[in-house]
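Hi all, long-time lurker, first post. I run a small reading group and we've been trying to get comfortable going from sequence to structure in the token notation. Rather than ask abstract questions, I figured I'd post a concrete chain and ask someone more experienced to write out its structure so we can walk through it together at our next meeting. Sequence below, copied exactly:
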Amino acid sequence: MKIEPVIRTAGISDAAEVSRLLKSAMLTYCTDSGIPSTMLEAMTESIESVSDRISRQTCLVAESGGKIVGTICIKSVPNPLVYSFSEKTCRFLEECGHSFYISRFAVTQRFRKTGLGIDLITRAVDIAHGAGSKCVLLHSAASNRNMVEFYGKRGFELIDSENSRGYPRGLFANFVK
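-- Answer (accepted) --
Happy to help. Here is the structure in token form:
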């Protein structure tokens, strides 16, 4: 009998394992995106920083065989305009209002293309929509065809692209229909 990964809310005690998973998954993300790993904040953040995020945001982990094999974080962003965006994005966000933002999404190599990533992103979007948000936002490298396609199939639309981090980053949004 195959045991599926169990998705649960992350705890502070998961921080070290989540950190290792993120760094491993981000190496693949960098390769697939054609960007150096030194450009990603996730590659250098400390376990304390991961712990802090877990304590302040809704962070989910997928666990299989006692190991964390997937993770995703989502946080409420009452005013996404506090971030620096292009004029096009600012106009878009003014209409969105209260949104949620997804970050630190990763699945270990062994569980990619098994549906686990779909389960994690669906759960995160459901949390946001359940809290009354009409818009869920995330960034991804616009050059990463796999992720752009993955997000598109989950109802995310490319809203804008910018280069503030030294590579083309797309802002994607998912709306309540």
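A couple of things your group might point at:
The first strand starts at residue 6 and ends at 9.
The helical segments are 15-33, 47-56, 87-96, 116-130, 145-153.
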